[in-house]
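Narrative of accomplishments. A recurring question from our advisory board has been how the design workflow behaves on a single, concrete structure rather than in aggregate. To address it, we present the structure tokens for one chain from the evaluation set, followed by the sequence designed for it. No filtering or post-editing was applied between the two.
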């Protein structure tokens, strides 16, 4: 992601990259070298783990959320970004990437340097209208696909319909 950002940063000199989360592996210093060599030190930020209001503030303040992961079972941060009305830029290795494509609520590319370059380039090339559609769709996708309260209501309605079709006979139980 940092190499792709370095190669596309000139497309939008106002764009900043925020890399949030813990550095459990100890890669920050090595990654900072990439940023420094690209001359982007003032545009890449490392706040560490964000929790509570800081995390939600970061989501609401961002333009889009990017996760060019090599493997992601679900991507809870993706759902959180959608809940905040933000489009997502993902690799095709994030398991919910097909949902994102189907709902046109973000961009999906391969989990390679070229794929991540395409994510940045395609995002930059979107018109304001196309971005506005993604912003509007993001909370809809969250509610319909990932909001557990809404999903529980749907499941209960389905069970209710089935019970009406096939009432339980207490004498059989």
């Amino acid at each position: 992601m940092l190499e792709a950002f370095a190669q596309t940063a000139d497309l939008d000199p106002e764009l900043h990259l925020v890399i949030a989360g813990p550095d459990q592996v100890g890669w920050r210093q090595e990654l900072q070298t990439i940023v420094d060599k690209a001359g982007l030190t003032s545009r890449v930020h490392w706040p560490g783990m964000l929790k509570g209001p800081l995390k939600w503030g970061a989501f609401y303040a961002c333009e889009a959320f990017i996760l060019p992961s090599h493997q992601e079972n679900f991507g809870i941060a993706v759902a959180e970004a959608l809940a905040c009305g933000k489009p997502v830029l993902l690799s095709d290795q994030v398991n919910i990437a097909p949902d994102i494509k189907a709902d046109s609520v973000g961009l999906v590319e391969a989990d390679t340097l070229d794929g991540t370059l395409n994510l940045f380039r395609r995002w930059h090339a979107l018109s304001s209208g196309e971005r506005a559609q993604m912003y509007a769709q993001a909370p809809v996708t969250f509610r319909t696909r990932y909001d557990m309260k809404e999903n529980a209501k749907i499941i209960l309605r389905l069970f209710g319909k089935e019970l009406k079709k096939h009432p339980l006979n207490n004498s059989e139980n």
